[in-house]
Amino acid sequence: HASAKRGRRIDSLGGKMALDRRRWFGHATGDAPYEAIASVASNEFNRITPENSMKWETIEPQQGVFDFTLGDALIAWAEANDQAVRGHTLVWHSQLPGWINNPTVPWTPATLKPVLENHVRTVVRHYKGKIDQWDVVNEMFNDDGTFRQTVFYNNFGTDYVCWALKWAHEEDADALLFVNDYNFEYRGAKVDAAATFFKSLIAQGCPIGAVGAQAHLIVGQVDEAGITAGLSHFADLGLLLYLTEVDIRYEIGRGNDIANYTPSQVGQQAKDYYSLTKACLNVENCIGMTLWQYTDKYSWIPGVWAGTGAALPWDVRLNKKPAYTAIYEAIENQ
Ligand code: G3I
């Protein structure tokens, strides 16, 4: 089944630095003015992901009323800076607008299905030819490998996954379609159950092309062989892989404050970025990785994982940390 679709050829992106000549190196960005991140971003990366601006609550805030303002601005920046775009994300239980994620709204399969179809089709159609990778379904599994109970699962069981993939494929047959999740890096209950499910999707002819492993990881807990094995388990199905939301955090006391960087932790973090990059390079089907913001300055980590931070290869002043060098050492040593 292995989808041969890899979007635009990496080689076609001029002199852009790719992870190696075949793989994408991307960054995610919030809705902050792009100038704030532009100088590094335009030179270092060949792919961008909107951190929030294409999520359902932003793009369809009222039923049937679509607002592409922020998404279109990101696309314009990407085009001006010669970067490919990962679309994130069409079907997710989080950051849904209130009109849909509301226990008092008595959705039924019959009322919800056209809503889902309209959302998926309208968004993919709007960005046809501009977005070559879509996170179609995000975080559909629990860590124990069971299916997460969401408004979609509760109405449709797992049927919505293949529907969404097919609708997206019908709107843009050239886009590479992903199921994306966290804790998708190592073999275990979640990865094994997901691979079994993806195998059934493929058998039914559902157009899944790739698996996104988010890779929100922790310093000192990154194992090259383990991640290689996890990614390979999906690759064995013929699916492509992508590390979609990379950061490697550690306990830093007060968020991202540069004064709190601990040399030993910074050194271990560099080793961990090396191992993670190596794991992707080890797997033929792994086509790239994207940092979830490239600088500690805008990282989501301290706000959610209190007391941790400093998870990215650039510090809050946009200076490179040892992790940056480690990524390119991994490429030289592949
Ligand atoms: O835009 C509002 C702003 O108007 C308001 O004043 C402010 C007050 O808190 O909130 C702003 O919204 C925040 C939004 O990010 C934009 O900055 C939300 O509170 C905040 O919850 C939201 O967090 C995002 C998170 O997804 C929500 O689930 C993070 O930025 C984003 O990095 C994170 O990304 C997710 C991926 O989509 C899926 N995988 C996990 C990853 C990390 O959680």
TrEMBL record:
Entry EC number(s): 3.2.1.8
UniProt-recorded name of the protein: Beta-xylanase
Family: Belongs to the glycosyl hydrolase 10 (cellulase F) family.
The keyword Signal is assigned to this record: yes
Gene Ontology molecular function, alphabetical: endo-1,4-beta-xylanase activity
SUPFAM superfamilies: (Trans)glycosidases
GO BP term, example: xylan catabolic process
EC category name: hydrolase
Reaction equations catalysed: Endohydrolysis of (1->4)-beta-D-xylosidic linkages in xylans
Domain GH10: 29-330
Keywords annotated in UniProt: Carbohydrate metabolism, Glycosidase, Hydrolase, Polysaccharide degradation, Signal, Xylan degradation
Keyword Signal: yes
PROSITE patterns: GH10_2
Pfam families from the UniProt entry: Glyco_hydro_10 (PF00331)
SMART domains given in the database record: Glyco_10 (SM00633)
